[in-house]
Amino acid sequence: AARRGLELAPNDVRFVLMLAQANIRLGDIQGAEAQTDALLESHGGGEELRVALAQLYLEEERPAPAYRLLQPLIGQENVPDLAYYLLGAVTQAQGDPDNALLYYRQVREGSEFLPSRASAAQMLIDEDRLVDARAFLRIERMRHDTYFSDLVLLEVQLLDAQGMGREAEALLDREVTRTPEDTGLRYLRAMRAFERGDIDLMERDLRRIIDAEPGNAAALNALGYTLADAGPPGRLVEARELIERAYELEPDNPAVLDSMGWVQFRLGDPEAALPWLESAYARMPDQEVAAHLAEVLQALGRSEDARALVRRIQARGGEQPHIDELLQRHPELGAP
What we know:
74% of the residues lie in helices and 0% in strands. It is mainly alpha-helical. Among the domains are: 1-100, Alpha Horseshoe (Serine Threonine Protein Phosphatase 5, Tetratricopeptide repeat); 109-179; 285-336, no CATH class. It starts with a helix and ends in a 7-residue tail after the last helix.
């Protein structure tokens, strides 16, 4: 098909790329390289084309020809960041992590910056060099203020993946203390506090964010929802006020719509809750919103609709903690 395409449109780069890819998958690397060499010769060997071809080889797990294509770009001016990112990936695949690290670090701020740092840090961890990975990320935070919060988040995620939750918490606490006005890090700490049941810390952090940024819809909604879901009944009105402020800021946000419905239900008004939750589910049909909607349907006497909704969500498979919790309270919703 690619050859037929070239007969019809000899100058269409897409067909040459398709033919090269087909040759790679057929195991004819020599034929694929012949196609890419011809393509480079006919189009002047431009940087973007070299990068595109190298990416093709790398996607097909062929690092050697990818490196051959990228090597002429090393040291030139205005090399695309994607080229250095790919050079890092190629060198890593060839078993040379130290040189791969050098290439990853040459990726400038932009769309490839965080992926390159994530790849570099994960590469070092895979090489049993966790200390080096953390030192690398710490240095990158000092070099790139713009990405400070993102790089802290990246290190937290990597530590979590290694089962080092305490170290992740310590890192986050340390950086929040050093940069108390960084609402991104404070919000991350608040969400992690919620996950481990430390509602007091979560509320303190979220209120600090709201005081600094009264228009922070995410913080308003998170605090309002938590008070509606896990707070004492005496704070439900306060929860509704926080969620209403979030709704004024982001009226189409399904998470806020879900919170609006849930606080109405917790206030004892399932009729008022229903349209909010139906709207949220239409926009974001995940298992948490579905659990809320099913519970409201059950409260309104629409048990069959609630059971049908639960069955649809269960049919998707995977972990569904909110549905599991719902069925613990209402086992009849799991009945056939």
